[in-house]
Amino acid sequence: MSTASQAAGDTPAWPEDAIEVGRIIDAWGVKGWIKIHPFAADPQALFSTRRWFLKPPEPQGPKRPAPAAEAIPSFLKISQVKHHGDGVVALPLDVSDRSGAEALKGARVFVSRASFPTAEPDEYYWVDLIGMSVVNLQGEALGTVVSLLDTGPHSVLRIAPPDADPNDEAVQRLVPFVAAYVSDVSLADKRITVDWGLDY
After folding, report:
1. Which InterPro entries match (predicted)?
2. At 95, phi and psi to the nearest 5?
3. Rounded distance between C-alpha atoms, residue 91 and residue 86, angstroms
4. Start-to-end C-alpha separation, the chain
């Protein structure tokens, strides 16, 4: 069995801007390839760097023991990556067989935000929009972006009103992220201006 273990001196430091971009769901083939479920419809972040950082899967339920720390390496160096169906497959260095790939199943994949490809004008990564404040054209605060929905034709901002529980979906505002409603996005000021009333 070949695993993706790394000598301590060869493992790079965990990036401060690490973003979770997918999860390893299975081995693919018999030569060490892994299959990844990306968290974005366009998984370019997985293609933009060959340095992937890993964390063990989160326990599901109170009775499930946490995976052993040594079972999942904290870093993978990727030699090849490509699209496959609705997912992504990759070949890590130091993983040469199926059993080594299966040992990585469930691992959460992170990459440095700095490695993301530069977005096109008027295009934004979801991770950059989450946490931004939202105001309308009258300067009234609608709240903070807590997540986005992918409806196919366009994305939708999920906005938690000021002082509301950000996890309470019943009070969240849903604003389509399209030019008809979004007047301005300022990454520098972390603010989105929308044509949307408080009473909508």
Report:
1. PRC_barrel-like_sf (IPR011033), PRC_RimM (IPR056792), RimM (IPR011961), RimM_N (IPR002676), RimM_N_sf (IPR036976), Transl_B-barrel_sf (IPR009000)
2. -120, 115
3. 17
4. 59
Q: Note the pLDDT tens digit of each residue in 56-70.
A: 987 765 555 554 545
Sheet holding 141-150, edge to edge: 173-176, 155-160, 141-150, 133-136, 191-194, 182-186
Alpha-carbon distance of 145 to 148, in angstroms, equals 8
Q: What is the pLDDT of residues 97-109, one digit of tens each?
A: 999 999 999 999 9
Residue 60: what are its φ and ψ, rounded to 5°? -105, 100
The verdict on residue 23 lying in a domain is yes
- Do 131 and 110 have their domain in common? no
Nearest partner of 46 among 15, 22, 77, judged by Cα: 22
Q: List Cβ<8 Å contacts ≥24 apart for 56-64.
A: 56/106, 56/107, 56/108, 57/23, 57/106, 57/107, 57/108, 58/108
**Token pair 């059993």 is at which residue?**
99
Q: Which range of residues forms the domain containing residue 105?
A: 8-115
